[in-house]
Amino acid sequence: MNEESASNRPIYDLLLKGGLVYDPANGIQGERRDVAVSGRVIAAVEPYINPSLARRVADVSEMIVAPGLIDLHAHFFGYEGTIQPDPLCLSTGVTTAVDAGGSGHLTFDRFNEEVISRSMTRVFALLNISGEGMVGEPEQDLEGMSRDLTAAKIAQRPDLIVGVKVAHYGGPGWEPLDRGVAAAKDTGTFVMVDQTPIASRPMDQMMLKHLEPGDVVTHCYAESKPMTDPQDKVRDYFFKARQRGIQFDVGHGAGSFSWRIAQAAIDQDFPPDTISTDLHRSSYLVNQATMPETMSKMLIAGVSMEDVVEMSTWRSAQKIGHPELGTLSVAGIADVAVLRLAKTHAEDGLGFTDNGSSGNRVRKANQRLEPEITIRGGQVVWDRNGRTRDDWIHTVTQDGRLP
Ligand SMILES: [Zn+2]
Fold it and tell me: Would 382 be classed as within a structural domain?
């Protein structure tokens, strides 16, 4: 069918027109492309698509059109500070999010029933090595941390559980981490670790001896796990760990992102592998730590837009073993984030706060990524300026006439 004969018959449900597409999986890096959606899938990505082929056309000129964002570290279950996924994920371009250790092998089914299965956001889980899940006593109770039961639960639900989380253990030894690493190895997944170093568990030994290639250190720019020394120099063993395949995730949180450390690290060529929020009540209230906000911080620190998008989409998709996500491939699921890079005239018109033991400090800047449209499975679930909607002037009159 040529374009002429098709012009009266729309074949696409929605056309995103004129955006700058970032789709690292397909080698598209900030190029002007039109993106068409049909049903639940991406139907076409082309330099020009005739608008008459679409039932709805959204002008997204000069905006960033990216795969739906993937938040590798968020909290939806397991303690009082967790949040519901949909309000803060879908409204910020996030279509897939990973709960980092809220549930363990004993509590995962309840998490699935109460949260995962009820969410429009696609939610995966990192299973806590502690059978009861996150926070407080379970994460301190070695008896409740079973390699075999954790691996068995992952093997039972590989569709939803993508790895293991080990965090917050206060005891002297390596048992939780070693069991978590083993359970991940047994299941071909990975461990995400949040362990503040103490004298008997130093950071270098953790990354160079206990973790396996592919495992992820989250909160990588936290003051509590300092990547830099007192002279702001990145410690040598972080480079060594990266060389052996350990990966580094932002996990912003309410106490885990230091501008001073992040900027020094990025200046010394130590950007993160993945960008994530550690989204929960405090990280949102204190630092507005959404994905676009955390991505904005990486941009301000000097990471390129190409890399920032890749760290927030394609890299995370590969990390969780879902390469069908994090891309805009034709015929793939239509999860899309349209972001607007808002700029102020003044160099210091906007503020971005950090956290940690030295308090909350602000860094002034003049640009911020704002979530404009989110599409989840072909459905528009967030449209900040009504770009996919008809003009109000077309409202039918009370007696049913079209104006
Ligand atoms: Zn966390």
Answer: no
How do strand 94-104 and strand 69-74 relate by DSSP bridges? parallel
Q: How far apart are CA 231 and CA 217, in angstroms?
A: 22
Tens digits of per-residue pLDDT, 236-283? Answer: 999 999 999 999 999 999 999 999 999 999 999 999 999 999 999 999
Rounded distance from Cα 284 to ligand 1 centre (Å): 12
What is the CA(82)–ligand 1 centre distance, in A?
A: 10
Task: Kindly report whether the global pTM for this prediction surpasses the value 0.90.
Answer: yes
The reply to whether 28 falls in a domain is no
- Whether residue 304 lies inside any domain: the answer is yes
Q: What is the whole-number distance in angstroms between the Cα of residue 259 and the centre of ligand 1? A: 19
Whose tokens are 């459905």? That residue is 379
Q: How far is the CA of 78 from the centre of ligand 1 (A)?
A: 11
The answer to whether residue 295 sits within a structural domain is: yes
Domain extent for 192: 69-319
Instruction: Kindly report the CATH number assigned to the domain that includes residue 188.
Output: 3.20.20.140
**Structural domain count of the chain:** 1
pLDDT tens column, 296-318: 999 999 999 999 999 999 999 99
What is the spatial distance between Cα 273 and Cα 245, in angstroms, rounded to a whole number? 11
Centroid of ligand 1 to alpha carbon of 196 (angstroms): 13
